[in-house]
Amino acid sequence: MTITTHYSIPGSSGYLDIYPERKVSAFQNPYIMGFTAVASIGGLLFGYDTGVISGALLYIKDDFPEVRHSNFLQETIVSMAVTGAIVGAAAGGWINDVYGRKKATLIADVIFTLGAIVMAAAPDPYILIIGRVLVGLGVGIASVTAPVYIAESSPSEIRGALVGINVLMITGGQFLSYLINLAFTQVPGTWRWMLGVSGVPAVVQFFLMLLLPESPRWLFIKNRKEEAITVLAKIYDFARLEDEVNLLTTQSEKDCQRRDGIRYWDVFKSKEIRLAFLAGAGLQAFQQFIGINTVMYYSPTIVQMAGFQSNELALLLSLIVAGMNAAGSVLGIYLIDHAGRRKLALYSLGGVIASLIILALSFFNQSSESGLYGWLAILGLALYIAFFSPGMGPVPWTVNSEVYPEEYRGICGGMSATVNWVSNLIVVQSFLSVAAAVGTGPTFLIIAIIAVLAFMFVVVYVPETKGLTFDEVELLWKERAWGKNPDAQSLLVRTENHS
């Protein structure tokens, strides 16, 4: 679907065609890079926490015999962070809307730091589990807050790339966790250092965040216009600043009128918000169900299939895979504002489907004496990461940071992030059981079928939001919901209110 370009809307493609000198470059504005870097530390915490536990668990089992002899305790130590993240993401949306993006980040940092201290000092596995829950709560809040804070503070023409930096920090955090795991393997108290050092970035972000302002769009929503203008003046030149302020003032007045008649629990009575949430939450679910965590999990097995039995080599491969994932995220930062969100997701899914079929074929022939299928599996793994990381890695988070109306961006973003974490938990808890029941090859084939469904979902339900202002995105959903005739929308709204 295409929407009519509003040449008067600051940041729109038509506006920037008329006033190319008003286009903002992140690299020419230290302030933009500064708030993006600080907010993205939340992504680093997200990635580090999801990656570090795999190495730490090896040494936790050495210190606590009850963990070594209980698969349930091992699974609980790993999965409780995901459970905490589900709760944190669900609560994070409300915290964002009520207290603001800045306070939500500070709250996440405090909770995460407390969790890191509890884990590092845990005298038994049960206290360790409590620490994992706390860290998960912090990660869940951060997973909602960082993309929204960055998106609302960014010029529309570079919004996708800046939100993509947060995704780069997630993959960078995973890569860092493997490096930290290697660094502390010979240090006394190995796993305590691995888990405890995660609190350092949270403390750094807390103090740096105190120096940053609140999101200007949230300030406008809360009628703190003078503070918002002070923030915007650091981002735009005077000519564009005036246009941006006029636009936000108009939007704020409209949003106030809308908020007066709609409560949080009424949010999905709006057809356009339902469509936006379907697209956003659907992308988050498919990001997990197309198997990123399962492919990462099976990387050591794939190495063994290729004929290499060394555990050290398997660990090195995990580091290489994480490095490829981070490198792909860098490519995604460039492509997301050039190729566009929708096109990037479709190309990414096409490559993921082909890669999963290669992986499935290699596992189907695992019993073959030929080493060719082992190398074919490694090729499938490399291709999967190469296609997933620049596309389906950043696109769901970027889309969710920009498709919701301002007054509901926090709560809808929180619910979408919750969908991501719940999907993550389902995949983690079910993959081994499914693989044991039907075989690894058929399991990868099932995931490939899910990826085909994801491709069809993007084609049908996900519009292109590249280069659109928040106002244009909202108009896009209105047109999808009601058509281009405003009278039809008014009539349908009145009909719904009387039904």
UniProtKB/TrEMBL annotation:
<feature type="domain" description="Major facilitator superfamily (MFS) profile">
    <location>
        <begin position="35"/>
        <end position="466"/>
    </location>
</feature>
<dbReference type="InterPro" id="IPR050814">
    <property type="entry name" value="Myo-inositol_Transporter"/>
</dbReference>
<dbReference type="GO" id="GO:0015798">
    <property type="term" value="P:myo-inositol transport"/>
</dbReference>
<feature type="transmembrane region" description="Helical">
    <location>
        <begin position="190"/>
        <end position="212"/>
    </location>
</feature>
<dbReference type="InterPro" id="IPR020846">
    <property type="entry name" value="MFS_dom"/>
</dbReference>
<feature type="transmembrane region" description="Helical">
    <location>
        <begin position="444"/>
        <end position="462"/>
    </location>
</feature>
<keyword id="KW-0812">Transmembrane</keyword>
<dbReference type="Pfam" id="PF00083">
    <property type="entry name" value="Sugar_tr"/>
</dbReference>
<feature type="transmembrane region" description="Helical">
    <location>
        <begin position="162"/>
        <end position="184"/>
    </location>
</feature>
<feature type="transmembrane region" description="Helical">
    <location>
        <begin position="344"/>
        <end position="364"/>
    </location>
</feature>
<feature type="transmembrane region" description="Helical">
    <location>
        <begin position="313"/>
        <end position="337"/>
    </location>
</feature>
<keyword id="KW-0813">Transport</keyword>
<feature type="transmembrane region" description="Helical">
    <location>
        <begin position="106"/>
        <end position="123"/>
    </location>
</feature>
<feature type="transmembrane region" description="Helical">
    <location>
        <begin position="72"/>
        <end position="94"/>
    </location>
</feature>
<dbReference type="InterPro" id="IPR003663">
    <property type="entry name" value="Sugar/inositol_transpt"/>
</dbReference>
<keyword id="KW-1133">Transmembrane helix</keyword>
<dbReference type="InterPro" id="IPR005829">
    <property type="entry name" value="Sugar_transporter_CS"/>
</dbReference>
<dbReference type="GO" id="GO:0055085">
    <property type="term" value="P:transmembrane transport"/>
</dbReference>
<protein>
    <recommendedName>
        <fullName>Major facilitator superfamily (MFS) profile domain-containing protein</fullName>
    </recommendedName>
</protein>
<comment type="similarity">
    <text>Belongs to the major facilitator superfamily. Sugar transporter (TC 2.A.1.1) family.</text>
</comment>
<feature type="transmembrane region" description="Helical">
    <location>
        <begin position="129"/>
        <end position="150"/>
    </location>
</feature>
<keyword id="KW-0472">Membrane</keyword>
<feature type="transmembrane region" description="Helical">
    <location>
        <begin position="31"/>
        <end position="60"/>
    </location>
</feature>
<dbReference type="GO" id="GO:0016020">
    <property type="term" value="C:membrane"/>
</dbReference>
<dbReference type="GO" id="GO:0022857">
    <property type="term" value="F:transmembrane transporter activity"/>
</dbReference>
<dbReference type="InterPro" id="IPR036259">
    <property type="entry name" value="MFS_trans_sf"/>
</dbReference>
<dbReference type="GO" id="GO:0015791">
    <property type="term" value="P:polyol transmembrane transport"/>
</dbReference>
<feature type="transmembrane region" description="Helical">
    <location>
        <begin position="370"/>
        <end position="388"/>
    </location>
</feature>
<dbReference type="InterPro" id="IPR005828">
    <property type="entry name" value="MFS_sugar_transport-like"/>
</dbReference>
